[in-house]
Design a protein that fits this description.
Largest sheet: 8 strands, mixed
Strand order of the largest sheet: 1-2-3-4-5-6-8-7
Shape: globular
Helix content: 25-40%
Radius of gyration: 16 Å
Order of helices and strands: EEHHEEEHEHEE
Number of strands: 8
């Protein structure tokens, strides 16, 4: 299970030397609200594959704190922050569906700022969500991903997610429309 002090290290390679990046993945706390909102604006500028753009989340700081508290109180949902050098560079969440007939199903999502793409941080975050889901008895994980986001699709496939269908024109960015895949992973 994700422990607030869990430290995971990855290596990045600079032009001439090797630099180790220490990545901390921990459960979000209300004090993280402002930083998370800033992160959402940052990642909204990095990619057109999200449901928001550079404006970030529609929540204000108070609402974001409330959302973090809701995650903290939930037994089967979790909101994680990903830190490097004590700066939040990504988030990962797992949210169970509200009704009893689907309480064994959860949706997952990950957003990381572009400077940290390609170092395995997304994989580590997704593995943390899968580990959490297994520990609380969730049986099915689902997600949506834009069909052009091949980097993310490859990650999800490597970790056992399968494409189950395509949704047409699911996301709009300017004049462009993007289809998305629905993917799932059966845990047991």
């Amino acid at each position: 299970m994700v422990d607030g002090n869990q430290r995971i290290s990855a290596q990045t390679f600079d032009v001439d030397d090797v630099e180790e990046i220490i990545t901390t993945i921990r459960q979000a706390e209300p004090i993280d609200a402002r930083a998370i909102l800033g992160l959402m604006r940052h990642v909204g500028r990095d990619t057109k594959y999200l449901t928001f753009g550079p404006e970030g989340s529609f929540l204000n700081v108070k609402q974001e704190r409330q959302l973090i508290e809701q995650y903290a109180q939930a037994e089967r949902s979790i909101l994680l922050v990903i830190e490097v050098d004590e700066q939040i560079i990504g988030i990962a969440n797992l949210a169970t569906l509200d009704n009893d007939k689907q309480s064994h199903v959860a949706e997952v999502g990950i957003s990381i700022i572009k400077e940290y793409w390609g170092y395995g941080i997304g994989r580590i975050a997704l593995e943390s969500l899968i580990e959490f889901a297994t520990s609380v008895g969730i049986m099915v994980l689902t997600l949506e991903v834009v069909t052009e986001n091949q980097r993310a699709i490859n990650l999800y496939k490597r970790l056992g997610f399968e494409i189950k269908g395509t949704l047409s024109k699911r996301l709009r960015s300017g004049q462009l429309y993007f289809d998305s895949y629905v993917m799932e992973k059966i845990l047991y």
